[in-house]
């Protein structure tokens, strides 16, 4: 498990512990159903149990952890409903954004997106899952910024924690090439200034999770809840 380094001049200790655990949960390092120990986490972080307890409370409030009476705190299972809701919201928002961008995507934007495709292919070839997912997020973030609505991406980011957990699982077992090809289709449509094609390419891309979800929930039923 990744180690944490507490920065005494940075955010509060509880915030840093929360950010650390939050990242481990989203990346699947801490799997659904795993038990969280205040004592063990505190020892690993080199802090008292109080900031760890505060981090646990925040994780529980966001649905990433759950308290089981007389048993302790456990990593929450992935909510299928939350995944589907986040996907629906993303499709509605990002389809509008890509159509807006298609009307005025400049050379600088297109060149940057092409460079990102190159980086995605490199990460896929190296089977570097963490880098690939980071690049995928960056791709969508940059599309929102280029459309003039980077703040919208920040809102989406706060809604899709359960979806991100699923992405880390699927990225380990499914071929990245299909996702890259979908990104390529989006960029090609932007090159042509074809808003309708760009929108359809984005919708197809964001609906891919609907194809992946049944197989993953069947293979790992213990990871999911309705």
Automatic annotation (TrEMBL):
GO MF annotations in UniProt: DNA binding; DNA-binding transcription factor activity
**What top-level branch of life does the organism fall under?**
Bacteria
Q: Indicate yes or no for the key word Iron-sulfur.
A: no
Task: Specify the HTH gntR-type domain's residue ranges.
Answer: 11-78
Q: Which InterPro entries match?
A: GntR_C (IPR011711), TF_FadR/GntR_C (IPR008920), Tscrpt_reg_HTH_GntR (IPR000524), WH-like_DNA-bd_sf (IPR036388), WH_DNA-bd_sf (IPR036390)
One Pfam match, given by its short name, reads GntR
Q: List, alphabetically, the PROSITE patterns matched.
A: HTH_GNTR
| Alphabetized SMART domains for the sequence | FCD, HTH_GNTR
Name the keywords, alphabetized.
Answer: DNA-binding, Transcription, Transcription regulation
Report what the protein is called.
Answer: GntR family transcriptional regulator
Query: What is the protein's species of origin?
Result: Paracoccus onubensis
